[in-house]
Amino acid sequence: MDFQQLADVAEKWCSNTPFELIATEETERRMDFYADPGVSFYVLCPDNGCGDNFLLGLPDADDDAFEEYSADVEEEEPEADHPQMGVSQQ
């Protein structure tokens, strides 16, 4: 399927989802999608010789936001959902 046909199918798919097709790059065979509140992903489409495999990707996270998230996660103490069986808790 040529790239324009893939883009047309993507546009039709978007009409039934909260996502919008915000960019297409025919040279890279890439389509970028976005939905509020800030959810985005891209799809790399195969050329005719690659079969039906598509590559789904997520844009790079903002470094500052990632560092803040990582710091919050590291501060949290893991809590057990249930007592460990077979381990003495003296």
From TrEMBL:
<dbReference type="InterPro" id="IPR027892">
    <property type="entry name" value="Maturin"/>
</dbReference>
<keyword id="KW-0963">Cytoplasm</keyword>
<dbReference type="GO" id="GO:0005737">
    <property type="term" value="C:cytoplasm"/>
</dbReference>
<keyword id="KW-0217">Developmental protein</keyword>
<comment type="similarity">
    <text>Belongs to the MTURN family.</text>
</comment>
<dbReference type="Pfam" id="PF15167">
    <property type="entry name" value="DUF4581"/>
</dbReference>
<dbReference type="GO" id="GO:0023051">
    <property type="term" value="P:regulation of signaling"/>
</dbReference>
<dbReference type="GO" id="GO:0045654">
    <property type="term" value="P:positive regulation of megakaryocyte differentiation"/>
</dbReference>
<feature type="region of interest" description="Disordered">
    <location>
        <begin position="65"/>
        <end position="90"/>
    </location>
</feature>
<protein>
    <recommendedName>
        <fullName>Maturin</fullName>
    </recommendedName>
</protein>
<feature type="compositionally biased region" description="Acidic residues">
    <location>
        <begin position="65"/>
        <end position="79"/>
    </location>
</feature>
